[in-house]
Amino acid sequence: MNSTDDDALRPLAAADGEPAFDEPWQAQVLAVADSLVQNGLFSAGAWSAALGAELKKADEEGAVDNQETYYRCALSALETLVAKNSEIDRKAMQGKRDDWEQAYLSTPHGQPVELPAE
Amino acid sequence: MPDFDADKVSEIHQHLHSHLPSEPALRVKALETLLVDKGLVNPQTIDAWIEAYTEEIGPKRGARVVARAWCDPDFKKRLFEDAPAAIDELGYLGKATAHLKVVENTDKVHNLVVCTLCSCYPFSILGIAPAWYKAAAYRSRAVRDPRGVLAEFGVDIGDEVEIRVWDSTAELRYLVLPQRPAGTEDLNEDELAALVTRNSMIGTDRDLSKG
User: Fold this and answer.
1) B178 and B196 in contact (C-beta within 8 Å)?
2) Architecture of domain B59-210
């Protein structure tokens, strides 16, 4: 189980006997993707094609056929579409990821984790 | 062998890292921060979406559509003619059901829904797709061997019943209208909706009389 010490953490309620998501980040991936489809940054068809390509690649590489793999593919598809359709590039994504990591590591446990103002 | 202090240091180190989000959690957090900064997503919309899909939107909506179709022949007719408009009557219209087709099970036909490419699914009336629907095993086998897949779900389909497999896309998604179980003439719409399983609306369940 991965750590999910996240300020967005809330109980993952069961829908028809199964939790909708195993971890909060999985919900965030779909929420952001759906939001960008609704906002018109990319189409539902483009999302489906990008996700399908990632799933095919994972399958060919012999990735475990489970939800973790599925959502990792969804995240990669989302990063690809954002890089393709906005001014946000891979470098910015990596930079912001590192900023968050640093913020988590330098914030005493129990205090809200925030990015330093730029 | 490490001495006591080294163990202690290692423990503290692990403790610190246990509060660090996982790699995908960090990546999606980074992405969301950048998108919010650029004004491409609204954080309130994201939070509301997550709350709705973890706590509210689920197969009960689809079950309500099915029960209404069983009880109201005019609604059923409208559902086949224009599913999004009929579903909108129940207040459940979402973008994912904007292009939806309802397919009906009969004594002679069983319908099974899959998305062979990814995981297209009418999530605004069925909630987030179950894990198996997104799995490569289901996506690759549903078309090739529907009877075998159904058998694994404990659903035996007689040879006299034709199985129709529907491959969903982002532009066209499907909802199976299961058969109303015999002996339910006295049940009201709420009671009927309680009989409808999620899987029956995807086609991996068929006989709802078994409870």
Assistant:
1) yes
2) Alpha-Beta Complex (3.90)
